[in-house]
Specification:
Elements lengths: L1 E6 L4 E10 L2 E11 L1 H5 L6 H22 L9 E7 L3 H18 L3 E5 H7 L12 E6 L4 E6 L6 E5 L5 H11 L6 H9 L24 H8 L5 H26 L4 E5 L6 H14 L2 E3 L10 H9 L12 E3 L6
Parallel strand pairs: 1-4, 4-5, 5-11, 6-9, 9-10
Antiparallel strand pairs: 1-2, 2-3, 6-7, 7-8
The structure holds adenosine-5'-triphosphate and magnesium ion (MG).
The site of adenosine-5'-triphosphate (ATP) has 26 residues, from helix 4, helix 5 and helix 6.
Length: 327
């Protein structure tokens, strides 16, 4: 099955072409037109600006992805597109493009939940998932732990009570004068920071649940005096410890055989190492997407669609939903 996938939920316009079915896929093309520079001067994403840029970029990017993936329109079996969550104006650009092309080309269109996409980014490496699976989606807008006992079932077991981890990284970067996006900048200067110079709390770490709180941590950073590199070091330590400890508490409780992390913050080297160490200790299979598939991309949306739709070959224009999230 060959799929054209579109992702425009926030500030990256992304289009991918995938070939596969079930839980296997080959990415034939994966393009991301980043709006990072456009929003940098505002210190964050401006929704109206993001939608307008998506509108300018989406069709040329689709054309380029089909060319790079060597996929003729007649060979497309389905179009996948992110439907939610995200910025409304941004999502509308992708959904309108997908529906328009689906109607014109007579191809089925599959709506995909963005967070499922971040989980399915883990499938792009071709590794086999053994269930139960516990996933941590940690990104600019979310930090959630999801339990999957069987394919297609996603149970929310815990998450942030306030800010997402990525949002906290972005705000700490702003406090330290490091610009936007914050995650990579904080993690870069943390490399020169020293352990023990700064002490930050680990909110909720001892509570018997799978929830997080990052807003207090972010506020604590604004009150600190010290070298930005030392602050960044300790902040990154705190976030990595908090995320990993709750994730592995869930792994233990649900006797997970596989643990997966996805979303932009999963690109953080310190978090990846912390999670890898714990997975090895507990003898749980670990899946972490390649760096380029942690932040927003359409390949993960195509993968999520493919996992649910191997029967769509030859279908005509129709709206399908690969969006089922149960709790
Ligand atoms: N190396 C890194 N370390 C820490 N955080 C990072 C790193 N790279 C990216 N991030 C953070 O990841 C976030 C972007 O991730 P992503 O693109 O998945 O988020 P989003 O799509 O905006 O949010 P959501 O997926 O919740 O809708 C930003 O907050 C960014 O600071
Ligand atoms: Mg995202």
């Amino acid at each position: 099955m060959k799929i054209l996938a579109i992702e425009t939920s926030c500030d990256d316009t992304s289009v991918a072409v995938l070939k596969g079915g079930g839980e296997r896929a080959l990415v034939l093309a994966s393009l991301v037109a980043s709006q990072e520079k456009l929003h940098a001067r505002f210190g964050g994403v401006v929704p109206e600006v993001a939608s307008r840029r998506h509108l300018e970029t989406i069709y040329p990017l689709i054309e380029l992805a089909l060319k790079k993936g060597k996929l003729a329109v007649v060979k497309i079996d389905a179009i996948a597109v992110t439907t939610n969550p995200g910025l409304l104006g941004s999502l509308l650009v992708g959904v309108s493009a997908a529906k328009t092309l689906g109607y014109l080309w007579n191809k089925p269109v599959i709506g995909v939940n963005h967070l499922l996409g971040h989980i399915y980014a883990g499938w792009l490496g071709g590794e086999k998932v053994e269930y139960p699976l516990v996933s941590l989606v940690t990104s600019g807008g979310h930090s959630e732990i999801i339990l999957t006992k069987h394919t297609g079932e996603y149970i929310y077991v815990g998450g942030t009570r306030d800010d997402a981890a990525g949002e906290a990284f972005d705000k700490v970067a702003r406090t330290l004068g490091l610009g936007y996006p914050g995650g990579p900048a904080v993690s870069k200067i943390a490399q020169t920071g020293k352990r023990g110079k700064i002490k930050l709390p680990r909110p909720m770490i001892d509570e018997n649940n799978f929830d997080f709180s990052f807003s207090g941590l972010k506020t604590a950073v604004t009150r600190l005096n010290g070298k930005p590199a030392d602050i960044a070091y300790e902040f990154q330590e705190a976030v990595a410890e908090l995320l990993a400890s709750k994730l592995f508490a869930a792994v233990e409780k649900y006797r997970a055989k596989t643990v997966l992390i996805g979303g932009g913050v999963a690109a953080n080297r310190r978090l990846r190492d912390e999670v890898a160490g714990l997975a090895e200790k507990r003898k749980v299979k670990l899946i972490i997407p390649e760096f380029k598939y942690c932040t927003d991309n359409a390949a993960m949306i195509g993968m999520a669609a493919l996992s649910r739709t191997s029967s769509l070959k030859g279908e005509k224009y129709k709206w399908y939903n690969a969006n089922v999230v149960t709790d």
